[in-house]
Design goal:
Elements: E1 26-29, E2 37-38, E3 43-46, E4 54-60, E5 65-71, E6 79-84, H1 91-108, E7 117-122, E8 131-136, E9 139-144, H2 147-164, E10 168-173, H3 177-181, E11 188-189, E12 196-201, E13 204-209, H4 223-230, E14 237-241, H5 247-254, E15 260-265, H6 268-280, E16 286-289, H7 292-301, E17 306-311, H8 323-339, E18 341-351, H9 358-369, E19 375-376, E20 386-387, E21 392-398, E22 417-423
Parallel strand pairs: 1-4, 9-10, 14-15, 14-17, 15-16, 17-18
Antiparallel strand pairs: 1-3, 2-6, 4-5, 5-6, 7-8, 8-9, 10-11, 12-13, 18-22, 19-20, 21-22
Amino acid sequence: MSATPRPPHSASQSRSLALSSDFLPTVTVKSVGLHPLLYRKRIEHAERNISPGDTVRVMDTEGRQAGYGIYNPRAELALRMLCDASKLPDEAWWEGKLKIAVALRREMLRLDDVTDSYRVIHAEGDGISGLVVDKLGDVLSAEAFGFGMYQRGGAILALLAPLVGTKHTLLRPGPASLAQEGFDGETISSPDLPNRVTIQEFGTRFRVDFAEGHKTGFFCDQRDNRRLLASLCKGKSVLDLCCYTGGFAIQAKQLGGAAEVIGVDLDEEPLALAKENANLNQVRVKFVQADAFAYMRDMLAQSRRFDVVVLDPPKLIRSRAEYDEGYRKHFDLNKLAMQLVAPGGLLLSCTCAGLLPSEEFTRMMHLCARQSGPLVSAATPDLPARHAPRGCQIIYKTGAAPDHPIATNCPETEYLNAVWMRME
């Protein structure tokens, strides 16, 4: 049985990465597996001197050391494993993990050849649970989902900056840090952090606004999907739904040579930045502030169709309690989007809801297609008309760009699913 948690460290209190094995408290877990995330119910016992965010020695119930982790008794996800018992997560260990992560992006993937912005740390995907870091031009922009990682964020960024050649840092707590981790941290930035930076991918420029931007400020995960979509847009009409700051829309025009591009988003601030991004690249894209449901229904009422439709909504399923409602929203959005695709056209549909598995998302798309064809009158007048099934072919199934690696021991790191469908 775990001890009653003490009041947590101040959210603003930073921690060093230096560590000595002589003074580590111990947490005993009921069962040890490969997954790096252990929930509170798996904790058998925790020493009373542990403070939230402490590095701990992890033991099994038979007294064998399983490894090291970061413990937060205030969180339901109480223990984030870092490494096995053969390695002590001291400053040298952290530096080694960061160098491995940077080598993937710069040496293997050679991302510096095509962009100045990419994900450098992908949480569990890089063995650093609870922290994501994006390189956005000269800025390292980090989001901490774990309390212990928030405390260590400054020290990690200080080690990481010289490895990627950045000048500025930004650290934000995750959006649900108070509810999930028991702390309410402030945004921490280097003194001379610019409000905005201009980045580029494949030669196309985008402005990133750190005050108004979501998460780390830019969605690097869709980089390769944006380029692939652009390759299919030559001379086409394109509708980008939930366009945010215009990534798909602008690349369809800039890289793809689309004939007409319309971007739709409900939020005023990212839409204003999308217009700036279009002007920055001297491309003509029409941006519309509207709810995606209402806009699609309006286009259908006008019998408007598009050669290419992109649907990339924000996360609609954040917890298992939201699954049913989020699934229905995905279904309704996709059913409408399919009806807007011209015969022989393309639908790119994305979900970043990790709780909606790839196979279930694909099955949902199949069910949507069965209800998105032309209206067919019922056999008797007292019954409503129904949509006939519409033929479709899946031509690609993709995910996040490879700077968002998937950990084989943590399936949740595969969170982005994109289905590319040719609609008959």
